[in-house]
Amino acid sequence: MQAFIDFLADNSNLVLGLAGQHLLLSASGTALGLAIAFPMAVVGVLLPRLGQGFAAVANVAQTVPSFAVLGLAIPLLGIGFAPALLALTLRALLPIFLNAYVGLRELDPSLREAAKGIGMTRWQSLVQIELPLSLPATVGGLRTAAVESIGIATLAAFIGGGGLGDLILQGIALRDTTRLLAGAIPAAALAIAIELSLAALQRHLVRRTHRVARAAD
């Protein structure tokens, strides 16, 4: 443990720089996944047949190993940040889409009927009532995708994408446990921090949703 602490003290700038790269890559992949998957979920609820097709696409994206995506992307995107970002985006699609889609579909149908009864259009009902009430489920999918992204981002080191995976690979190659832990432990700490933060946000949204539902009753 002392060797690990000494390594961090002597290489703090290196570790912080790689942690920043790791977080940027993970956040970018998750954000792109959200930007693609959330509109897919909304459209899928409005057009159920299309929603089934979207679910099939998301499931296929999830079954493709991240290593395979990296390998296929290299001829098109080269090495570095871009192919790693593609892999993380594809991996984020399924949890975000499914949670948002299921969260919207499982809302009480009487909510839509009540909205229609007071003169709301389908779009107004979706934006003003259904989407806010389904936010906890959507954040649950985002939480899963973000934590998975931190782990998968370590693979970026294999193609020059940077991040804490660089230290892990160096530790394996040099049989240097201290260097390996200097990459693995900060990556685990990032995942835990993101998990706790998004879990707290999800609990807050659940409480707020319950208060809104009670007020509506």
Folded structure, characterized:
The protein has 217 residues and is mostly helical. The chain has one domain: Orthogonal Bundle (MetI-like fold), CATH 1.10.3720.10. The protein is 86% helix and 0% strand. The chain is built from nine helices and no strands. Helix 2 packs antiparallel against helix 3, helix 3 packs antiparallel against helix 5 and helix 7 runs antiparallel to helix 9. The chain is elongated. The model has no long low-confidence stretch (mean pLDDT 86).
The helix tally amounts to 9
Broad shape: elongated
Looking at the overall shape, the CATH architecture is Orthogonal Bundle
CATH superfamily heading: MetI-like
Helicity range: over 70%
- How many angstroms does the end-to-end distance come to? 57 Å
Largest sheet: none
Summarize this, please?
The protein is mainly alpha-helical. Helix content is 86%, strand content 0%.
Task: Looking at this protein, list some descriptive labels.
elongated; 217 residues; MetI-like fold; mainly alpha
Write the layout of secondary structure elements.
Layout: H1 2-10, H2 12-46, H3 48-63, H4 66-77, H5 81-105, H6 109-117, H7 122-152, H8 165-174, H9 177-216
